[in-house]
Amino acid sequence: MRRKVSIIGAGNVGASIAQLIAHDGIADVVLFDIAEGMPQGKALDMAEACPLWNSSVSVKGTNSYGDTAGSDVIVVTAGIPRRPGMSRDDLLKTNAGVVKSVVEETSRISPEAVMIVVTNPMDVMAYVACKTSGCDPHKVFGMGGVLDSARFRAFISLEMGVSPSDVEALVMGGHGDQMVPMPRYTTVKGVSITNILPRERIASLIERTRNGGAEIVSLLKTGSAYYAPAAATYQMIRAVLFDEQRIVPCSAYLDGQYGIRHVYVGVPAVLGGGGIEKVIELELNEEERADFDRSVAAVKSLMEKISL
To answer: Is 23 a catalytic residue?
Structure first.
């Protein structure tokens, strides 16, 4: 029996995730949206491409939550996107309401599903999803760390003129302007970039990573990033469906790790069939710890603005 992934929100991010799943044929896909006809049209287009991809999975578009019942993975992308001049934090209250409504419906009919939250501000939305669903916090997590680390990898590879596949990067903290790229734990073929690049170049790459999403928003003018967010989410879906036990940076629920409790924030974690199998606690130096604590405080300040 094939696995089932339901994607809530058929905009650019959601549709791109669905395409990646259908192309590789790893699961049946349900693409949900409240806009009539839109998820159906995109799903039909993908279904017609499946023969060309040698993929035998089902791709269904729907406006009914009932079609998502029995999902193994639920991906929440629903919400309003960033526009020029907006921060992720500006989306807080509107998207909190959207995510709460979505999770109430989907968790009821797919109680065993692992839930991946993409909607911004992502760390807080993961918290909203967890509290609304009542699920084990290990089965609800946010995508941001994978995306932020991929952006850091891309910028380092461009700076050095090397393949991004030779770069391993780590970004911790909240998925926002106070995210914490970790140069000491970021390597090129196993060598820390602190031993390769000048401090001022690393600082510049960190700044560009923190503004990675805003840079794309400013260029597009009418939307936000979707190829990289979709690819990041897809990596997480694969890790869950195939129980890959991959170490990835993601927004995980902390319950004492790093001395933090009851907050979703980006940390390295082992991701497998049960969701977050283990949070990895790194030894942080004084500067890293101060940056991480500031980022956690920023996430907490947003959490205080919503009521559940």
So the answer is: no
